[in-house]
Amino acid sequence: MNAKKWTIGFISLILLCLLFITGTNFIIDPYGYFGARKGENYSMDEEDYLREQKAEHIKYHADDYDAYLVGGSKAGAIRSSKLSELDGLRYYNCWLLSGNFEDYYSYSKYIIETAHPKKLLLHISTSEIAQFDREAKGDIYEIPAVISGKSKTAEVFNFLFKNLSASYDKITSNAPQYPVTETGERNLQKYYEYYQNNLDAAEYYNYLMKSMVDPYLPRLTKGTKDKTELVNSNLDYLKKIKKLCDKNGVELQVFLGTLFIGEMVGYEGNSFYNWLTQMVEITGGLWCFNNYNELVYNPFNYYNARHYYYEMGDLMIDRMSGKETGYDDFGIYLTKDNIAEELSRRKSETDKIREYYEQTGTIPLSEYEDENNITQESIYWNTNANSGD
């Protein structure tokens, strides 16, 4: 074989290999990227590139909604149909896996410019006070090109030339799928299924909570790290969101989602108190469900150490709607007039938890049978997110 034939053969082999890689990734579509066009692929779950699917859905279905919820993964447990009870508007839940304030600003800007909503509801998870590095986490945590303004062509090539191991894993996996709903909220059925079969408090805690909660607890005695730089960055983006909404006549409502006590104590400290105080100043007032109340001590109200069930999401909406719930200490509407008093109360409650931890090496938790477990006999077991209406 002469050099020319060898070169042609070698190039042809390379081209066939590239064609095989791109063809396989396009057909198998392990991240759901190519199927996300127009945002109508409702078979995608939280392991897929939902950020792209949500951006496409907002673009092509803007007429279906009046308002949008933006937040991190915690916000995924808030049902869009329940949100309508706040103000009668039609909501889309634009939760983002490991969301941070930069993400929230990017999506808020995109939503306002693309969908022209009446209202933006911003859910803050408090975990934004810890640094998130999307690039280290993977591609499904990146802001898609349609929002970031980066090259769409480069993005397409990026997903075409992914390692084939992702496609192989997808076609060989027998794991059940839990697709998100059409209106965006997270599918929690795998967590409800585990819940039904593990009602023993110790087993439930050890499996779903221990590995994430226990590392937080030493902060009760050692203190939390200074997060001034990150706090200031968050506040800068919040100001941008507020300015963007004001400029475009969009109502902005901000609230902090509920936290399990094991996560909550990991953030108590001056950085958090300063962050909360300044967010109140920027917004003029906000609901804070990251507060000490009896519900947060029951692990069965949360499907893992950092995320709450639909019931807790429903209860937050009821409280913000002004409904009688029987849980008046769950959440507090913070203003410039009462923020100092609330912070004083938080510090006092944290001192009590610290004393308990120093004596026992753990934190106080309530049992499955406790009246403050609001997920007992859940209407969402073995059903989908919206069937409780």
Q: Could you explain how this protein is built, in words?
A:
The protein has helices at 3-28, 50-60, 80-87, 101-115, 134-137, 145-148, 152-160, 164-172, 189-197, 201-208, 210-213, 219-222, 228-247, 261-264, 270-283, 310-321, 339-360; strands spanning 67-71, 91-95, 119-124, 251-256, 286-288, 302-304, 307-308, 332-334. The strands form 2 sheets. A 6-stranded mixed sheet has the order 2-1-3-4-5-8, sandwiched between helices. The chain is globular, with a radius of gyration of 23 Å. Strand 1, helix 3 (80-87) and strand 2 form a beta-alpha-beta unit. It is of the alpha/beta class and 389 residues long. The termini are far apart.
- What distance lies between the first and last C-alpha atoms, to the nearest angstrom? 73 Å
The overall pLDDT average reads 90
| Structure summary, number of beta strands | 8
Strand arrangement, major sheet: 2-1-3-4-5-8
Percent of residues in helical segments? Answer: 40-55%
Query: How would you sum up the global shape?
Result: globular
Rg estimate, integer Å: 23 Å
> SSE string, helix = H, strand = E?
HHEHEHEHHHHHHHHHEHHEEEHEH
Give the class from helix and strand content and strand pairing. alpha/beta
Tally the helices: what do you get? 17
Largest sheet: 6 strands, mixed
The percentage of residues in β strands lies in 5-15%
Which ranges are low-confidence, i.e. pLDDT below 50, for 5 or more consecutive residues?
A: 385-389
